[in-house]
Amino acid sequence: MAQPRDIRRRIKSVKKTQQVTRAMKMIAASKLRKAQEAIINARPYSRKLRETISWLLISEDLPVHPLLAQPEGDDLHLIVLTGEKGLCGGFNASVFREAAAIVSRYPARVDLIVLGKKGVEHYRKKKFPVAAAFAGFDKQSPLALSTRIASEITRCFIDGTCRKVAITYTEFISALSQRVVTEWLLPMEFEKPSDLEMNLNYLFHPDPLRIVEDLLPRYIRSQIYRAILESQASEYGARMTAMDNATRNSEEMISHLTLQYNQARQSAITRELIEIVSGAEALKG
Amino acid sequence: MPAIEFTLVTPGKKLFAGNVSWVQVPARDGYMGFLPGHAPLVSLAGTGMITCRMEGGKEKIFTMSGGYFEIHLNRMTVMADVAEHVESIDLERAEKARQRALDRIRGTLPGDWDIDRAHAALLRALNRIGACQNCGILPGRKN
Q1: Average per-residue pLDDT in chain A?
Q2: Could you name the CATH architecture of A34-238?
Q3: Domain positions in chain A
Q4: Which of A53, A152, A200, A281 is least surrounded, with the fewest CB atoms within 10 Å of its CB?
Q5: A162 an active-site residue?
Q6: Hey, what domains does chain B have and what are their CATH numbers?
């Protein structure tokens, strides 16, 4: 049986770990609150933008725009949003799994655009070629970053180096539940609006072409922006849950170890008593 | 009384949602006013003030810059790149931005800049300052 002293030492170390995980949980919770607010505030904009464009696309005098092309071919640019740090349960692993599934479906040619240090490290370790990598992206403004990525993929799509663009990220449902999704950015696909809305004849000011030129790049930008915010909120949510579990596990471990410690202490006392008693008996003898 | 369901959204925030009886929005080449029953329209937005007249006659004023707006079936949405309520404008910052933009245009400020961006910045600063003046908000006031 272990010495009481050793067990006490272990209890101490588990307690220290627990302090760390509890602090990390608190930090994640406070960051989550901010991130959650940001994503909830950002959703109406991107939803509305999508709606406007789907109306635009059914209008009769729709101008031709290179971003509306539906090119043949499978050359894919896949944007993968991962986390900056670990210790967040299966957050990064499930993004990698989803990305790997997409990649295997498009064996022709896939260029990865990876955001997040964890993702960059993962693909470097696997020696998977990465077209563009953004580590430390949580320190940059998501708006500026999404503008940069959007203009890059738009350029690639227009000059024909890629024919499909998708983005894999973790959608934030609640602090406890997140879901990895893949959305197609290009070529653009929109659901048909309802019949009532089909019959509206929109006026365009200054003219349809200028509006389409403004709105389409804006749409891609806003999709990437929203995905970044979703992914960030999800990362904090996942970390909070993971750290909560870790804190609870260490609680369990401490109570288990305390029991062991008490048993060890008790048996030491009993042993000592036996020694004293038998010593005294021997003296009497 | 018919009304327009008016919403003002920026990429980061929904700033206003409610019924208005009249609203004026800056398009690229001048202001456009909207009354209930307006024909469906999509237009690019410029820099300027949004004036919403609420039911009851009270007016709410915002400044905005960039983006577009869209109206159909008495539902109107302004999708602004930047927008703020006039009460939340940082007048001091706008004043500094105006000075900086002027210095750039005059060429007294060294550095990497281009004239179009300086013009746009000056326009935004003047818009904010003008909106504050219109609403009687004076410099030096603490927000």
Answers
A1: 88
A2: 3-Layer(aba) Sandwich (3.40)
A3: 34-238
A4: A281
A5: no
A6: 4-86 (2.60.15.10), 90-134 (1.20.5.440)
